[in-house]
Specification:
The chain has about 210 residues and is an alpha+beta fold. It is built from four helices and seven strands, in the order βααβββββαβα. It has one domain. Strands 1, 2, 3, 6 and 7 form a five-stranded antiparallel beta sheet that branches.
Amino acid sequence: MQPFWMELKVRLLADLHTAGPGRSVPLVDRCVEVDARGEPFIPASSFRGRVRAHLERLLSALGHPVCQPPNPARMCPLEDGTFCLACQIFGNPSRQSAIHFSDLKPAQAVPELPVRVGIGINRDLQTVEAQRLFLLETVPVSDVEFVGTVEGWLLSDQLGWLIGAIGLITHLGGNKARGLGRVQVEITRLLYPSPNTEIDHRALLKEVLSP
């Protein structure tokens, strides 16, 4: 395994909602998560979870073994004692993760957070639920870009699969069914092996996914 360092940029294509605990705004039911300075951000756990989900789908679609938690009988290690590629990279209850994600922070000042009106829907009747009006805080579409990093220790083929999964991300946050969270994710810089060599992530991805 070799060390790597990757810089990411996320541009919003639609308003974003990342739910955050411990914060309240008068009359707002669902607030956006903010840091100690009051700036909204994309939590590392949220982004990491989305990357892993896409990696598992990609591996499964291409015929690679993928464990199926939370069923203990279908979790890694597999019957032969090995771990699926997703668990090799992201870890599981019996294996430490090989990578670390940072929070994605805004590179510029974020405009005032707007509040959207939402309504609850009865899925069975396909009608509006009585007394289910709510107010949802969002991060607005603007020129603001969110930046963060991923780093760790991976083999070149593992890193290629990780790059492929990141490239599949089109949405982040909650309320995606309401049109929120559409994003464009870009890898702006990749050092591998870190910190001396900058490489083109597209070339590495092509090398790993080529038949």
